[in-house]
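Problem: given the chain below (66 residues), write out its structure.
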Amino acid sequence: MGEFDITDKKAHGIGYHIENMRNRITAAVTSKTSGNMPTMQYTVSDDANIAKYGLLAKNCSVNSIM
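Solution.
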């Protein structure tokens, strides 16, 4: 999957509103099989957007099949 500008309405075919916007996403990835993989946490954020709108965060939990 390549990168795209989330503010470009043509990039994903839908409009956007601040109520649906997130400027920090944290994903916790865990293994379905105990002991095979430690929980890893990844966070991406847009600091300029946070300064403009305030923190609009979303936390996700992802289960690995490994």
